[in-house]
Fold:
Amino acid sequence: TYHRSVVARDRDKTRQMVLENLGWNVLRVWSPDWWYDANSATDNLDQQLRQLLEESRERPAVAEAAISYADGSYADGSYADKSKADKSYADKSYADETVEPSTSVVAEPPPEPYSSAGESKIYFARVKLTDATSKQDKFYDGSYDEDLKQMAMAILEREAPIRDDVLAKQIARAHGFARTGANIKTRIFDLLSDVVATNESTGRFLWASEEPLAEVEFRPANSDGDRRSVDEISIAELTGLIESKRDLLNEVDPAVAIARSIGLARLSQSARERIEEAIQLKLR
Structure:
């Protein structure tokens, strides 16, 4: 039933891609090879693992350090050994599904603020959730409420204010859902009924604070993978951006100037309208 799912192929490909981007090497075993000649399949795995070990030992010390940082360990070294112990196995998803990933949340430590000319700056980085595809069949069970809420609250703690459908999409993808339909959104939002929310022109934004703020400091993306579209940024954060760059309001086209200041090479009509909305609020 696992492989009859319409999202099984995407789920397996996505899992491997995520792990490889984190520095893991994934070895696959074709299930008939495992069933009919497990010894040969094991020997082949052993040979490939030994080859990978030899290649890793030949890398320069600098490369080794980079890999040890990218393999899921934290910058301060915490959880490094546990991560390696939990993950250093060959991926046999086609052969068996006995290895069940935890549904606990993996959230890397937030980037440290830095000072430049006495100015403190923070960054936006998306929370990384563990692969919960094996829990997909429990998604709508009441017994799974706490797990889902834990994921949602971890995202809120790091990413809020965040548009509600963006939060729902992250949780849905962690569970292997290719689409984030109305039922999935309703399931997640029902668990967050006590979370503060504000309705804006581009959607509903969820807050981690006890009440919404009129203005918050703008958070530039920590990496290319953390970039947000303008309509995913709350109006409070956009006004915070404008406050920090008030000199750009004197430009011939302030919206374009502000967009370029955050790395947007092209300003769509919807993005322009969103930035101009924030400018008008700031000038009131």
Q: What stands out?
A: The first strand starts at residue 114 and ends at 116.
